């Protein structure tokens, strides 16, 4: 089947999903349970922890965007991550990037501390470290590209095939790029997860997640565990996420345009020590990003001259850009990963990953880019 354009996928109505009235905007089916015609014939919808029409509508759309066969809509990104780890046998070895999302690091490490799995965190760009990790018979390779907050790029095709050769499943956390920019399953990954809290919902007003797979056997296991562990998202949240998703493509286009402008402005700024953005020709893996992503996305990180003290003074001057965790929403947010999103990572692990106290992460929103640049300039002026 030929793939539809993401813009078309997210905007397509599904009147067939409402058998009563063929609505364009689907109703919200809040019922926790559904009537059986007789005790021996399970209806399509029986109990809403297991199945719900709003989750199914969202799931269908996400599956088409990600070339997945199925999966589960969960109540947060973290519950999607937990669901992926529940697929593994006890004691399984998980290989993850040392600069992954702080919550992913906390979850994998917490389970490792309890002896439920064993964890190896490596720099996924390093061929030797990768070969050594694959030599230890892992069951799962965790990929996050572009990485958060350093926006390093992992070659998905290369690493997913390396994992397969070692007998491991590979998973990509595709929250940052969104399926409008990157499709990990098409590049050889077995699993793709999302925090739909971020760009997919895009309105900073709920939590959600998804775990999807292309292989029907894996899909079955995902559905089984989501139900068994009770990780499913609510009907209301699924409906809201689908509503937000309608504008995903145009939001990403617009946010990315602004991010390109802001990143090259930062890169040329005398007070900026380093700018991380896959769209800059100076990014060390600019070519890999250009090959596997259809655009660099809307996330930038940068460090400013003067260390932690200058960073604090800079942040205090911002008026339009808000100091807050999270990303992918309508409004531009800035954060200091060392003390905010990545505080679950001990200082040694932060140093190992390259997350310094002068590093700032910017999630570019929908405001006019001129206004965002003026706000950043106000921050820099405070340092002179
Ligand atoms: C936010 C985020 C998560 C966790 O998602 P929640 O919805 O906050 O539970 C996982 N991975 C990445 C890359 C994220 O940005």
Which features characterize this protein?
384 residues; alpha/beta; Aspartate Aminotransferase, domain 2; Aspartate Aminotransferase, domain 1; 2 domains; seven-stranded mixed β-sheet; 12 strands; 38% helix; 15% strand; binds pyridoxal-5'-phosphate
Rg, alpha carbons: 21 Å
User: What is the count of structural domains?
Assistant: 2
Name every ligand kind in the structure.
pyridoxal-5'-phosphate
Q: Specify the CATH architecture of the largest domain.
A: 3-Layer(aba) Sandwich
- Helix/strand-derived class? alpha/beta
Mean pLDDT: 96
Distance between the termini: 58 Å
The profile of the biggest β sheet is:
7 strands, mixed
Question: CATH topology of the largest domain, which one?
Answer: Aspartate Aminotransferase, domain 2
CATH superfamily of the largest domain: Type I PLP-dependent aspartate aminotransferase-like (Major domain)
Low-confidence stretches: none
How is this structure best described in words?
The protein is of the alpha/beta class. The protein is built from 13 helices and twelve strands. It has helices at residues 6-11, 53-66, 77-86, 102-113, 127-135, 156-165, 216-229, 235-245, 248-267, 286-292, 307-317, 347-353, 369-381; strands at 70-74, 92-97, 117-122, 140-144, 169-173, 191-195, 209-213, 272-276, 299-304, 322-323, 333-335, 359-363. A seven-stranded mixed β-sheet has the order 1-7-6-5-4-2-3, with helices on both faces. The protein has a five-stranded mixed β-sheet with strand order 8-9-12-11-10. Helix 2 (53-66) packs parallel to helix 8 (235-245). The chain starts with 5 loop residues before the first helix and ends with a helix.
